[in-house]
Amino acid sequence: MILDLFAGPGGWSQATSVLGVRDVGLEWDAWACRTRTAAGHLTVRTDVAAYPTWPFPGRTHGLIASPPCQAWSIAGKRLGLVDQPLVHQAVEDLAAGRDTRARLLSACRDERSLLAAEPMRYLHALNTVGEPEWIAMEEVPHVLPLWQQYAAILRAWGYSVWAGILNAADYGVPQTRRRAVLLASRVRTAHPPAPTHAQAAEPESLFGPGRARWVSMAQALGWGATDRPVPTVCAGGGPGGGPEPFPSGSRKTLTDARKRGTWTHPADDGATSPGRRGGGPAWCHEAGDSRAVSAAAPGGRARRWSWSLRSNNQAHATTRTIDEPAGTLFFGHRANECTWVATPSDAGDTAAPEPIRIGVREAGVLQTFPANYPWAGNKGQQFSQIGNAVPPLLAGHLLAPHLGATLDPDDFTLAA
């Protein structure tokens, strides 16, 4: 089997499924388990730290692990950095067959910190029978020193190991999500997959075609595709001159807007004023084109808006235009609300539309999950699962060499 520790809603599992195999995921969160089950992924709901290791030796081909990142992430208090010496000690002890977790846990500032040592408990048990053949682990960048400790131990056990930082955007993910990755193998030289994308497109050379440009949010979401109208979101006049469709505090998303009829495109009904049925003033943006679009404004003046995705409500939040990849998506705290924001592309006194919260489907697609992925739970629980997941497309690139499979990025369809 392929054992997936801290399996979450199925980032790694979606990748293995696309590559033609299945993993068995161990996961504690009830809503993530419901999502996994609805998506058809094999799941054991359990506490990875409490589950016994004896069922796995003699039957485990590969091990995957993405321990919870909340203790280490810049989105949280980062107490994992304070606890890091204790986690290193736990890894050293578990690699030698000594279980000192209870004593070390009592000294941790964040009890989740020690979860990053749990994969070593499984690896020690599996190593007694010469398993697994390969290992793939992923975490936030601050965990890299811990992965380097794992690497030293695994090399002593006969593995080829690579550990370093990868940017998901370099592999076609529409998000500049940097992660610490460990890859190990008993049968092949471990190294990271060759990047397929770059910040700027590269020309063809004597060695073949260059890397493609990073995938933008607009590309991933299908905004501006030739087979679908470019969406135009309006604020300041709904259908038939109705009230502002996105009032302050609105939780409606860009995707919801079209369903409600509060935005449209000239191609939809032949309207001469983009984004408006029923006439009258409106302030609009064209979501498939960060160059913005002229729109009717009070006094007959044209207004132009550019739309961007802001990663959270904090002062240092990453903000990217829709013709760029998103910044790292993370949720789970009120301050981590990811919103579409409008900025004027020209001078004028017309007020900008209200920020619009990103939708679950949109966030999932930007993580390279299928648009119809069956997220379970309320909006907060769904967003938390998405933010903590491994992008399936990145996981596919990492796993394909170990599985002897050929990765076809077209299998990871983004827009619906």
Give an overview in words.
- The protein has twelve helices and 16 strands.
- The strands form four sheets. A seven-stranded mixed beta sheet has the order 3-2-1-4-5-7-6.
- It is an alpha/beta fold and 416 residues long.
- The longest helix is centred in the first third of the chain and has 17 residues, at 79-95.
List the helices and strands and how they pair.
Blueprint (H helix, E strand, L loop, with lengths): L1 E4 L5 H8 L5 E4 L2 H9 L3 E4 L16 E4 L13 H17 L5 H7 L10 H10 L6 E6 L4 H13 L3 E8 L10 E8 L11 E2 L13 E2 L3 H5 L10 E4 L18 H7 L5 H4 L13 E4 L7 E3 L5 E9 L8 E3 L17 E6 L11 E2 L2 H7 L12 H10 L3 H12 L13
Parallel strand pairs: 1-2, 1-4, 2-3, 4-5, 8-9
Antiparallel strand pairs: 5-7, 6-7, 10-11, 12-13, 13-14, 13-15, 15-16
Helix pairs in contact: 1-12, 3-4, 3-6
Summarize the structure in short:
With 416 residues, this protein is of the alpha/beta class. 26% of the residues lie in helices and 18% in strands.
Number of separate structural domains: 2
* Helix percentage range: 25-40%
* Biggest sheet layout: 7 strands, mixed
What portion of residues belong to β-strands? 15-25%
Give the class from helix and strand content and strand pairing: alpha/beta
**Cα Rg:** 23 Å
List SSEs in N-to-C order: EHEHEEHHHEHEEEEHEHHEEEEEEHHH
How many distinct helices?
12
CATH second-level architecture of the largest domain: 3-Layer(aba) Sandwich
* Strand order in space, largest sheet: 3-2-1-4-5-7-6
- Report the end-to-end length measured between terminal Cα atoms: 32 Å
Q: Would you tell me the overall average pLDDT?
A: 80
